[in-house]
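Pasting as-is:
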Amino acid sequence: MYSDTLFQNEKNMQKRAVLLVNLGSPSSPRIWDVYRFLTSFLNDKRVIDLPWALRLFLVNLIIIPFRVRKSSRLYSQVWTKDGSPLVFHSERLLSKIKTQTDGEFDVFWAWRYGKPGLKKTLQEIESRNYRELMIIPLFPQYASSSSGAVIQKAIEILAQMKRIPKFSVIDYFFDYEQFTDVWVSHLKEYSKKEFDHVLFSFHSLPIKQTEMMHRKGSCKTYACREQISGENRYCYHAQCYAHARLLASRLHLQPDDYTVCFQSRFAKKWLHPFTDELIVEKAKAGTEKLLVIPLSFVADCLETNVEIAQEYKDLFQKHGGKTLSMAESLNDSDEWVKCLIGIIKDNFSEKKKSP
């Protein structure tokens, strides 16, 4: 028994581990489980960037008490016997990757908020004594409240280990050519001739939070909607517009054919134009057929299956529009699996070439 474990650890010393991380999900749509999930999520100082006492008061005495029942109802709408869409698509993605890697690396999964959590998964990885670890937050664009929250927590956990493994992080991947290729292929079924307009919808964030990525000045100072450079490349706002331009170019969309917009906002001082307001505006202006492509997500979730596919669709039709279609997320599609494996291999190969 001991010799078998020793042999396995020696074998793993020649192998690499990959940890995929996404936001998380409650364990069920029951109010108590949703409450625990929201408490863990919204109390993260990277998610709500306020002084500790103010965040504690706002989150636990105002936001969660007023949102938990509604959130529970929304989760109930999308819940299946396999869990939420985010959960079962992620589990299938992991399973497919494991069957297609030929033992080149071992792949693990964790949630930033939920189970399996980062701590338990990283402890399992530590126990197997891997030579190297690659951490990939599954958010195409970098944001302090998403990728940043994952990276910070992972580093805090790794710092407590007796042996800190050599590790690397892929902090964003919207501009990887393979990733653009997957989206272009994924959208083939949506002919631009069938729609009057396309919306590239991203999750909104507080403007203040995105502009913290600048050395100084605002998004207007760095022209984040028009360009991305070394000075603003970690600005979420700039990355969203750059992502939309990449995809629009490959889809042969002209500037008048599409609009970049932002959904799921909590307040007015968040990134805009807001998707819901733009949908109403387009409907009133005579747009009949609208395609919404959510680009902040790699797996369908509440923000896609409920907010866009149900609420925004009803909103569009209520104000005179006829058809609002939503492009599904990449989920566990074979092309996305192949793309992710390719990104992992390419990054490991680059490290082999490094002096």
